[in-house]
Write a sequence for this structure.
C-alpha cells in the first residue's frame, strides 16, 4: 500500500503541473511518472530473501560457495529477479483491481434494479426508459424531445408550464440516457451513437419525420452530434449551457486557457484524466486521496429530487457518470466549430438557439461564446447574471420553449 500511495501522490503532482500548459502542451503532457525509477524497487530487489540461512547453505554445499561464504553472482541475480517479478505481479494485480470498474446492474435482471418506467427496445437489444408529458402526441402540433444532463434522468425534464403545453399543443418527451436510471448501459457509446438512439426512439414512439430538441449541460453537448448526424430529423434545436470539449479543434489557446481556469481544480484534473487516460476515469472518481469531479461528488444543486437521485446511479457510476465524461471529453474525430449550417438551402427554416449564463462555474461560458462567433447560423443568448442552472429559474422554461417554437420576436 505504501508503494501505491507513492504512485498516486506522484500522479497528482504531475497532473497539477500539466494543468498550467497551453492546449498543445496539455495534449502531449502526461502526469504519470515512473515509480520504478524513483522508488525503492532497486533496493528491495538486491536485499536477500527473508529466512535465507546463508551460513547454513555454506555448510551444506562448499562447491556452491566462494571463499567468502557468499553465493555466486548468478544465484544472487536469480533471487533478485524472482523478488522483482513477485513485487511487480502483486503491484499489477492491485492496480488492476483498483482501476477496473464493477459490472453494471442491468435493470429488470436478477440483482438489478426493477423496471418501473415504460421502455422501448432498440435494434441492438438495449432499452431506453422514457417519460411523456403535455398533450397526447396524436393531437400535438409540436413534439419536443428533452435530453438531460450529467447525473440526471428522465424526471429532470424542462419544467414547462401546463398552460403553455396546452396553449401551443406541445407533446414533451424525456428519456434516461444510456446507463442512467432505467435505460440499459451502452459500453460502446460514442458521441454519434447517442444521436442515433434519439432518432430510433422517435421512430419507435411514432413521433413523425421531424421533431424539436432541447438539451441541457451534457445533454446540450449531444445537440452538436444530433446536428451533425440526424439534421434531417430536426425541426429546431435549443442548446442550454452545453458542456464543451476543450480539445475540439478550432479553439484558440487564449480561449482554451480562459475557460480552463474558470473550472474548479478538481474538475480540471477529472476532465484531464477523462481525455488523456480514459481507462483511469473510474479509479480517479472513486479513490479517496484526491477529490474527483465536483459535479459527480454532488457539489452543485441537483435537479433530481432526493427520492429520485438514487435511481439516477442505480446501475453503477461507470456506465453513467464516468462514461459521460469519457465520451464528452474524449477524442472526437470532428469538431462542432468546423460545422457548416446543416439546414442551408433547405425548404424549411430550422433555427438553432444556444443559451449560456455568464456566471456558470461548472461549464465556462467562454467556449459557448466562441462557438457562437464561429457559427453565425447559431442564435446566441448570453444571460449576464445566470449560472449553470438557469433553465430551472422561474419563467425560463416557458421562455426557452416559446423562443424555440415561435422565434424571438
Amino acid at each position: 500500500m505504501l508503494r501505491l500511495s507513492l504512485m498516486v501522490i506522484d500522479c497528482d503532482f504531475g497532473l497539477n503541473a500539466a494543468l498550467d500548459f497551453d492546449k498543445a502542451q496539455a495534449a502531449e503532457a502526461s502526469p504519470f511518472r515512473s515509480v520504478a525509477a524513483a522508488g525503492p524497487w532497486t533496493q528491495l530487489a538486491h536485499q536477500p530473501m527473508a529466512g535465507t540461512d546463508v551460513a547454513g547453505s555454506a555448510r551444506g554445499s562448499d562447491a556452491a560457495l566462494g571463499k567468502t561464504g557468499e553465493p555466486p553472482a548468478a544465484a544472487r541475480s536469480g533471487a533478485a529477479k524472482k523478488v522483482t517479478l513477485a513485487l511487480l505481479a502483486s503491484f499489477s494485480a492491485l492496480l488492476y483491481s483498483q482501476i477496473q470498474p464493477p459490472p453494471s446492474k442491468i435493470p429488470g435482471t436478477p440483482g438489478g434494479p426493477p423496471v418501473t418506467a415504460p421502455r422501448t427496445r432498440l435494434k441492438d437489444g438495449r432499452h431506453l426508459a422514457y417519460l411523456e408529458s403535455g398533450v397526447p402526441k396524436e393531437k400535438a402540433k409540436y413534439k419536443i424531445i428533452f435530453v438531460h444532463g450529467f447525473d440526471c434522468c428522465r424526471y429532470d425534464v424542462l419544467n414547462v408550464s401546463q398552460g403553455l403545453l396546452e396553449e401551443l399543443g406541445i407533446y414533451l418527451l424525456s428519456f434516461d440516457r444510456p446507463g442512467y436510471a432505467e435505460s440499459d448501459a451502452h459500453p460502446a457509446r460514442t458521441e454519434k451513437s447517442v444521436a442515433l438512439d434519439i432518432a430510433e426512439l422517435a421512430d419507435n414512439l411514432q413521433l413523425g419525420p421531424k421533431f424539436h430538441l432541447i438539451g441541457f449541460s451534457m445533454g446540450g453537448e449531444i445537440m452538436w452530434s444530433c446536428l451533425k448526424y440526424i439534421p434531417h430529423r430536426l425541426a429546431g434545436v435549443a442548446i442550454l449551457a452545453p458542456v464543451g470539449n476543450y480539445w475540439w479543434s478550432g479553439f484558440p489557446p487564449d480561449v482554451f486557457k480562459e475557460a480552463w481556469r474558470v473550472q474548479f481544480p478538481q474538475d480540471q484534473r477529472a476532465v484531464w484524466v477523462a481525455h488523456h487516460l480514459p481507462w483511469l476515469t473510474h479509479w480517479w472518481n472513486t479513490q479517496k486521496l484526491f477529490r474527483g469531479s465536483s459535479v459527480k461528488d454532488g457539489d452543485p444543486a441537483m435537479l433530481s429530487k432526493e427520492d429520485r437521485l438514487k435511481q439516477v446511479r442505480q446501475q453503477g457510476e461507470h456506465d453513467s457518470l464516468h462514461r459521460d465524461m469519457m465520451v464528452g471529453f474524449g477524442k472526437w474525430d470532428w469538431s462542432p466549430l468546423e460545422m457548416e449550417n446543416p439546414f442551408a438551402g433547405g425548404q424549411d427554416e430550422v433555427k438553432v438557439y444556444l443559451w449560456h449564463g455568464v456566471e456558470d462555474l461548472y461549464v465556462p461560458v467562454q467556449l459557448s461564446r466562441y462557438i457562437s462567433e464561429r457559427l453565425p447560423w447559431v442564435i446566441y443568448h448570453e444571460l449576464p447574471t445566470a449560472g449553470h442552472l438557469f433553465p430551472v429559474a422561474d419563467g425560463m422554461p416557458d421562455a426557452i420553449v416559446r423562443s424555440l417554437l415561435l422565434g424571438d420576436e
In short: The radius of gyration is 27 Å.
